[in-house]
Design brief:
Helices cover 38% and strands 22% of the residues. It has 16 helices and 23 strands. It has helices at 40-59, 62-78, 80-91, 95-112, 115-118, 154-165, 180-191, 206-214, 227-239, 262-274, 292-307, 327-342, 380-383, 399-407, 422-431, 467-473; strands at residues 2-4, 6-8, 11-13, 20-25, 30-36, 122-128, 131-139, 142-146, 169-173, 199-201, 218-224, 243-247, 252-256, 284-289, 346-349, 370-373, 390-393, 411-412, 414-418, 436-439, 455-456, 459-460, 475-483. Helix 2 runs antiparallel to helix 4 (95-112). The protein is globular, with a radius of gyration of 25 Å. Bound molecules: nicotinamide-adenine-dinucleotide (NAD). Nicotinamide-adenine-dinucleotide is lined by residues 146-151, 155, 173, 175-176, 205-206, 209, 224-226, 229, 247-250, 281, 385, 387, 413, 454, 458.
Amino acid sequence: MLEIAHFINGQIVNGKSSRRQDVFNPATGNADKTVILASEDDVDSAVKAASAAWSDWSKTPALRRSRILDKFKNILWERLNHIAEVISSEHGKTLDDAIGEVTRGIEVVEFATAAPTLLKGEFSENVGSGVDSHMIRQSLGVCVGITPFNFPAMVPMWMFPVALAAGNCFVLKPSERDPSASILIAEWLKEAGLPDGVFNVVQGDKIAVDRLVAHEEVKAISFVGSTPIAKYIYTKGTAKGKRVQALGGAKNHLIIMPDADLEMAANALMGAAFGSAGERCMAVSVAVPVTEPVADALIERLKPKIEELKIGPAMDPVSEMGPLVTAQHLQKVTDYIDAGESDGAEVIVDGRNFKQDKQGYENGFFIGGTLLDNVKENMSCYREEIFGPVLSVVRKKSYQEALDLIHNHEYANGTAIFTRDGDTARNFMQDVEVGMVGVNVPIPVPMAFHSFGGWKSSIFGDHAMHGMEGIRFYTRIKTTTSRWPTGLRQNPEFKMPTLG
Ligand code: NAD
């Protein structure tokens, strides 16, 4: 059976741990691979390698660093299908979705190749007589990325291209559920010319994470995953004096106003709720039609579309939606639908009835798309993140009621409004307390040169990912004030220097 190992100091290594975990192909339900779960010693080896590499890497000219990233980017384009197939085989998402994921990651690499420009400092001449002042951005040292299962390539690529471009070394701890993409990334970075030790991967679980978060040599932690773990990492990491950006879970609402193009809204909801089987932190899981007639008309359009969803293995080009990631996750999603039904939600389309009969895939972790109507704010299927292909409809009477609904939720990652009215759209953009906002755009994921991050319980820490926020997170500023002898001799001054 294929075993996924660590990548430390430029080599694939098994490390010292004897612990292993199965890695499943969600479409077949078979455990085709195992992943090694690191011991604390294995983590220490990775951090040591990164720490040792930092001295040279941080002093490597930014242009040279960016050229290595540029080569890495070209390798990714050349082998896009290969890495996407690996992702699909462990995550379950359709191949075109996996290609889309890697492409969005490549965009961050493209952004990071502008390092010489992005890292430029500031200079002020003559801040006092004969005195100049300049600010530079310097790297932090060893940075860590701890990432979730749902984007095994893109989420790490939100982090390490910017961290490396800025002169840091990196240790990635990917999800143990789909670990293989991380090793391809490590090998391709090496092939692109990245010196050994600059980028390392440790596979593992809580033991690896806890050691990384506690390690003295680790200066910054980027985390993406569920909210309880994000909060835990943020609390532990900051208590140790580290920089932490920890992005958590989501419950994203899409408001449909009476003047919206309803067919456009329904189609947008289909992709946003059921794409990637709803396993996206920017998936829309709550539709909020404003007024009863809009709700009825929306349900009428959504029902047949959901019933006709083409659900199948990733490699089948007709599949629009793949399986869930594991049998446990399938059970969790099913439990939420059960709870919604017993709490009084109306099950309009029931994904629990779905049976995959394609030969060889009967035991895959498949579920159908589900539509719940008349969902209320106190139901667990509304309050909690399901992370599956379940769309809840919460009916509201007015724009203000819909806005209040969003504001009363603990998560605030993404949201959208569908309307033709500029006034309402502008008010929404201005007033909604959510980090990423769409107007007639259902999944408003910012491009690489902007920054990705939610508000409230969807983020802990002050910096979003990539874009200029990423540069700020992965650098610390140093401001130097300098004067050169000009023939002037000054007497000692004991008061605070001012320009006078
Ligand atoms: P998760 O929180 O279970 O795992 C994320 C990472 O934390 C993994 O590397 C895992 O090994 C580690 N981890 C898990 N339990 C831990 C523990 N007890 N102690 C220490 N480390 C632990 O998340 P997941 O199920 O892999 O991913 C889905 C979640 O990620 C969803 O909540 C989703 O909304 C969120 N997510 C958020 C964003 C965002 O940008 N806000 C993006 C993608 C995913």
